Amino acid sequence: MKQYHKLVRDRIPEIIEADGKTCVCETLSDEDYLTLLDQKLNEELAEYQESKSLEELADLLEVMQAVVRARDWTMEDLERVRADKATKRGGFEKKILLKEVWE
Predict the structure, then answer these.
(1) Which residue, 41, 35, 32, 83, is CA-closest to 64?
(2) What distance in Å separates the CA atoms of residue 47 and residue 43, rounded to the nearest whole number?
(3) What is the spatial distance between Cα 56 and Cα 61, in angstroms, rounded to a whole number?
(4) How far apart are CA 82 and CA 92, in angstroms?
(5) Cα 48 to chain center, whole Å?
(6) I need a surface site. Which of 16, 33, 34, 81 has the fewest CB within 10 A?
(7) Are 25 and 13 in contact (CB under 8 A)?
(8) Rounded distance between C-alpha atoms, residue 33 and residue 41, angstroms
(9) What is the pLDDT of residues 19-72, one digit of tens each?
(10) How many CA atoms lie within 13 A of 64 on its CB side?
């Protein structure tokens, strides 16, 4: 037996059982769900940073979308905030490295 305390994708239990194994799961409270989503963001970011793969970046986006829904935001809300910040502060296309600011 292997023990976990890990938020997993919705179909993972059925995939485990289809492989002839048994698993124990529980449904999280909203508060615990948000806590574990935040942990999952860190996990997926670390995996992307290690692999630099499109698949891991897609996993990170999936978790971000889950966070948006869990906090009762919409993807449109997220895009609106992103676009507003880009208009006011710019994006990252110019590859600018800030090195010093003098007072």
Answers:
(1) 41
(2) 6
(3) 9
(4) 12
(5) 11
(6) 81
(7) yes
(8) 12
(9) 999 999 999 999 999 999 999 999 999 999 999 999 999 999 999 999 999 999
(10) 12
